[in-house]
Amino acid sequence: MKLEIVNGRVIDPKHGVDRVTPLYVAAGKVAALGTPPPDWRASRVIDAKGLIVCPGLVDASARLREPGFEHKATLESEMQAAVAGGVTSLACPPDTDPPLDEPGLVEMLKHRARSLHRAHVYPVGALTVGLKGMAITEMGELSEAGCIAFSQADAEIADTQVLLRALQYAATFGYAVWLRPQDPYLSRGGVAHDGEVATRLGLQAIPSCAETIALDTLFELARSTGARLHLARISTHDGVQRIREAKRSGLALSCDVAIHHLHLCDTDIGWFNASCHVIPPLRGHRDREALRAGVADGTIDLVCSDHAPVDDDAKQLPFAESEAGATGLELLLPLTLKWAREARVGLPQALACVTSRPAQVLGIDAGHLAVDAPADVCVFDPEAWWTVDRRSLHSQGKNTPFLGVELAGKVRFTVVAGQLVHES
Amino acid sequence: MHSPQLNAAGELTHLLTLEGLPADVIVRILDTAIPFVSIAERDVKKVPLLRGKAVFNLFFENSTRTRTTFEIAAKRLSADVINLNIGVSSTSKGETLLDTIDNLVAMNADMFVVRHAQSGAPHLIAQHLSAARRDHIHVVNAGDGRHQHPTQGLLDLFTIRHYKKDFRGLTVAMVGDVLHSRVARSLIHGLTTLGTPEVRVIAPKTLLPTSIASLGVHVHYDMAEGLRGADVVVMLRLQNERMGGAMLPSAGEFFKHYGLTAEKLALAKPDAIVMHPGPMNRGVEIESTVADGVHSVILPQVTFGIAVRMAVMSMLAGA
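YS: structure for the whole thing
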């Protein structure tokens, strides 16, 4: 298929492109930008007048729920949600059932995903067997099967001896380790930020020091092991500050934030709204402001959806018993645009947080539009407003704190490997 | 924020929390309770205000006292009372909270009195009924997790008003396990709403939520200091499972620092009253001479509790 996308404002953050120009796609790759390749004849021309043409989004955390949780979501539903949200590459955490701790599971997942011809799926392997935090997995085998990094998802490694060994082993072979900093003891039983809301509502709290203490431990271990560390889902003011200092001191690490943490805080829980039950918890106003500032100044490298589709039954429970998580693949782009507008951050910088920067952390050739790059493209209307409701979401999970909210930014076309896979 | 328990006309549709409940509604409940106190002293202890109504006592967490007082209150209003002690068994059978509710709605329930171990469970039920357009069914929170126990808060307010007449000018001290206490969270909101100038909490840091001061209370770690000049002393129940862990070393040490003795009580005003939501742990929170002494209004609290619950149920039923 030869695609020609004309009249659109092409933004390629990685290469500093931001101009109205045609983009040519052939043989699954970007064929040219500006002037057509020799003997060009398009099989389809897309008029992107008034639209923005950018690299397909790269989401560093999207749960597809397969295998094991098909009642929450399926690959079919979530891959459709991905491309509807302009996401063309995604990393999926290992917290499936069984967890992604065996090469066979990873291969099966990759195979299933490939056969659907939607977004590219990059599994993140389990760092420890069964995510139990006790024995390390066959990282070599898993890596060969296609794992791009290793993580514990939301499971803990309470034993710092195991944590040290896991980082040492991964560092030996240069495997990336993605960990969410949270002290397992300080967060035990907690479901909400340790602040006024948790006090009023009588919800068990998770203090900010659960994050900072874990960060200090991880900094120390990253320094001594030389592991390639990525810190997932930063949530606190003090956490951002510590990462800023660690980076300044020369420690090579990257980190991310979930998009809902840039917009919400604990007061949004209202009267026990279970759709605001997420991990890590929504924190205070001060924390949210620090996270927004952290993304703006580059301390936080990237923004992810932390997509977690949950079935209605698991959400219609008292707050603490409800399952944590929010659906997000289709909200990543509009919520990033919303943040950019409110924080007065330019579109190229904002789009870098969901394209080139995550691609770099995943270690994949994606998130940019250079000639010969894989033709993963998102074409969206930044001025199209739409209301988030159950019907407008393709994901099987309808669980989002943004239900009923009007957002700007609608994906019109999504191209994966040169194929038009979504159009609206 | 939208009120989960008042309708557009400002009338009570559920009683879920004392937070955000307007002062005039609280006063109306307390006033309504006054005549119900005397009903209990009559030969025939019944009024027909809830005749033909089905009240379901839904206790997902064990409680003898609260369930009994709700049962008596509903029966004195001539309601049909059905007690369901669900405990944890139904959830282990796989039925969800809302499935249980739907089943009871199908049995034409008019009111649910709900006790649940999880904060927010009664809110969830009220919201569910509203979404199903069952606004004529009322929910009374009989204690949810650490969140609220509004009828206990109201009966505490009733008791304080009975003995002290006016809240403006009072110093109220609450002592003990504030962290896990739904009673404290209810009473604090009730007292501040009615204009109590000084509400104190007295506890070790392990038994206080971090942001407790944001509810408008003064925090004291030293009991003598906290009791000085108090008009009302509210002792909170300390559950045995809090002992011996990381919260408290022992019952003995807790009593030494935070137990109410005649000697400590002497620091409060001479006419101070002593309250306790029950059940009491004698020798842990309170010594017997105080519990049974002249300052104690612990048993009148129980009597008033029935009247206050009658007031709440009758107002909800629109009677």
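YS: worth flagging: The two ends of chain A are 19 Å apart (CA to CA).
IM: good catch. Also Chain A has two domains: 3-52+374-423, 56-362.
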